[in-house]
């Protein structure tokens, strides 16, 4: 007789090992008591060319509340509320200039997207689309991502740099004359 619960836990244990090495190293720097929570929440999903991975719409901003406390409660975990890390393949981030979608960034392995509102005050919205025949994405629910960002300074800095680059590219692609190329 096979114990299904036991088999699922064994399979989940290996998910951190499927992350790209740099991200895995940063996540493992997180407080050790959170490792089982991260491992249990992590989900690896495979997409095909042209599949929509995520539609990221940041929560509405309010003026004076503290950032992480406010942001922690603005979005509930759901199928479309996660941070994504590319484990294999490429993803294209599309932003809208009001008339059409424009590529803001082409991401490859070891790059992340989503949860921008945890680190910047007024992030751009975007869509992430699979841009290679096979794309594997590690999905981290927002509640877990919030904990990692709050506790792990190295991971926070890494994610913040990626978010800032994405924000700059989105700005230049949508709000300036530098929309092409």
Task: Set out the fold topology.
Elements: H1 4-13, H2 21-28, H3 35-41, E1 43-48, E2 52-56, H4 67-72, E3 82-88, E4 91-96, E5 101-107, E6 112-113, E7 126-130, E8 134-141, H5 142-151, H6 153-175
Antiparallel strand pairs: 1-8, 2-7, 3-6, 3-8, 4-5, 4-7
Summarize the structure.
The chain is an alpha+beta fold and 181 residues long. It has 6 helices and 8 strands, in the order αααββαββββββαα.
Descriptive account of the structure:
Helices cover 35% and strands 25% of the residues. It is α+β, with helices and mostly antiparallel strands. α5 packs across α6 (153-175). The model is unreliable at 1-13 and 62-78 (pLDDT under 50).
Keywords:
181 residues; alpha+beta; 8 strands; 35% helix; 25% strand
Question: Which sheet architecture does the biggest sheet show?
Answer: 4 strands, antiparallel
Rg, rounded, reads 17 Å
The number of helical runs is 6
What share of the residues does DSSP label as strand, in percent?
A: 25-35%
Kindly state the percentage of residues in helix. 25-40%
Mean pLDDT: 83
Based on helices, strands and strand pairing, what is the structural class?
alpha+beta
**Span between termini:** 59 Å
The unreliable regions are: 1-13, 62-78
Record field, number of beta strands: 8
Shape: globular
């Amino acid at each position: 007789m096979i114990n299904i619960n036991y088999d699922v836990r064994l399979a989940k244990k290996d998910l951190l090992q499927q992350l790209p090495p740099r991200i895995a190293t940063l996540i493992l720097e997180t407080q050790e008591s959170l490792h089982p929570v991260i491992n249990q929440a992590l989900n690896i999903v495979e997409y095909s060319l042209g599949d929509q991975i995520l539609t990221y719409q940041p929560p509405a901003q309010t003026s004076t509340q503290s950032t992480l406390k406010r942001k922690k409660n603005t979005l509930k975990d759901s199928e479309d509320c996660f941070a994504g890390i590319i484990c294999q393949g490429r993803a294209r981030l599309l932003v809208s200039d009001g008339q059409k979608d424009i590529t803001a960034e082409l991401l490859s392995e070891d790059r992340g997207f989503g949860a921008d509102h945890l680190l910047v005050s007024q992030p751009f919205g975007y869509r992430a689309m699979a841009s290679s025949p096979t794309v594997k994405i590690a999905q981290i629910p927002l509640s877990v991502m919030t904990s990692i960002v709050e506790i792990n300074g190295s991971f926070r800095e890494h994610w913040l740099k990626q978010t800032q680059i994405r924000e700059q590219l989105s700005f230049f692609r949508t709000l300036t004359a530098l929309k092409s190329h």
